[in-house]
Sequence to fold (190 residues):
Amino acid sequence: MTVDPHTAPSVTDPDLQGQASSWDDFRSTLRAAGVEAVVEAHRAFSRDLARAWDRPIRLLWIDGDHTYAGAKEDIDLFRRHLADGAIVALHDVLHTFEGPIRVFVEELLASDDFGPAGLCGSIGWAQYRPRDSGRWRAARVALGRRAARLIPLVQRGRELRGLAKLRYKLLRALVPHAAPDPAAWVRMVS
Fold:
């Protein structure tokens, strides 16, 4: 399932270059990948779709409004629908947008509803495990401390320049963000 209004302009989709929508490109990408028949696409805003949503979610990918209010609204709207073991992933956590990093740190890493968590490149992820999340608390808190150092630099909403940009890059490099080892993941959650 995917939800996106496919509207423009968008600071997170500058390649539209004045086009009114990314809908046609999205549909052709699904066709080219051979998954059009299995992807349930909703051309809407998530807040509108959430009003009537009543199914469990096993993967919640948040990559829309990159403001704090927008990213937080997405997690707040759909969190109650997460299936046990679901993965929540946010795009652009290690980019200079305030929303994804704050929601990742404040809503996922700080919550005992989530178990293992990490970053893969700029994608922040956490597994919804409210029954046994405590065994991953120390690792989540440690990751949260490192990632939280980026928040004051992006909260201003301005493009980073000079020393601020250099500081951001240095602090971002100190946040572990290598791809997880699949075999280690299976051992860890079993």
